[in-house]
Design brief:
Elements: E1 3-8, E2 11-18, H1 19-25, E3 38-42, E4 55-64, E5 67-76, H2 79-112
Parallel strand pairs: 3-5
Antiparallel strand pairs: 1-2, 1-3, 4-5
Length: 120
């Protein structure tokens, strides 16, 4: 599926338009000879950059050569976002510690054997 995006004052405007919707909405525009008010658009399906623990991915539409594409960047978390992330990380650490403790306990039980010693 091809995508198109409106251009306003030389910059991407609004959101991409699917080809079938573009053809219905603008039947007089030749997609192979777009006027300056439109550009082809290329979707980048997933964030394609490395994001740090205390960063947030940010998506923008930018000119890349003759077309507009999804461009990912990262921004630092706000204090509020960082506080929420710290709680999430603390909960994960506690869950992992509890899991390790349970594993060690059950392994110690297995090492003792499952039946008591029998003395004749």
């Amino acid at each position: 599926m091809d995508l198109f995006i409106q251009i306003k004052d030389g910059q991407p405007y609004e959101h991409p338009i699917a080809d079938w919707n573009f053809y219905d909405a603008f039947p007089d525009i030749d997609p192979n000879n777009l006027p300056p008010e439109f550009s082809r658009f290329e979707r980048v399906p997933d964030c394609d950059i490395s994001i740090g623990v205390y960063e947030v991915p940010v998506l923008s539409y930018q000119w890349v050569g003759p077309i507009v594409k999804d461009v990912w960047s990262a921004r630092p978390m706000t204090d509020e976002e960082r506080a929420i992330k710290d709680v999430e990380l603390e909960n994960i650490a506690k869950a992992l510690a509890a899991e390790e403790a349970a594993k060690a306990y059950f392994e110690s039980l297995q090492n003792k054997g499952s039946a008591p010693d029998v003395i004749s």
